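Request: How about a record?
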Amino acid sequence: MKHGYVRDCDFVAIFDADFQPEPNFLCRAMPFFIHNPEIALVQGRWRFGTAGVWRIFALNEAGGWKDRTTVEDMDLAVRASLKGWKFVYLGDLMVESVANKLLILMQKVMLWKRIYVIYNFFFVRKIIGHILTSVFYCFVIPATVFVPEIEIPRWGYVYIPTIITLLNAVGTPR
């Protein structure tokens, strides 16, 4: 708004940085200004953020764009409405947001993460736990009898099987 070329314009389209308006956004928004000089803003539909065309005169009369707040678009709209300016909301004029697409993608990723965690929980408990127990009881302990170089400390004979059994028992609700 501080550039010189703005003085030659009557309207300004303002979007959040991650918005992608439809190619015909201005063609659909501008006709509302033609015969309605009291209209300050024509706003498109969005989930969160700024997406609309402002009449520069109304914007300046309301005190201009103030970036001192995180809701500068709402701040400006309130100030403009207090000055008597009117607004048009077009519910069928969509403005897509990259953040919205990213949110949907993150939800899909979270779903796959949950499936992965649940799958691994049951896989480790049902398969790996049994394999580990079998290897310990069927190979490691008998190997200590036949191969004197393999030595398990006395506490290992009690604690390792006990820990494996407790971990399997804790994970099995009854």
User: Anything to note?
Assistant: The longest strand covers residues 86-97. The radius of gyration is 33 Å.
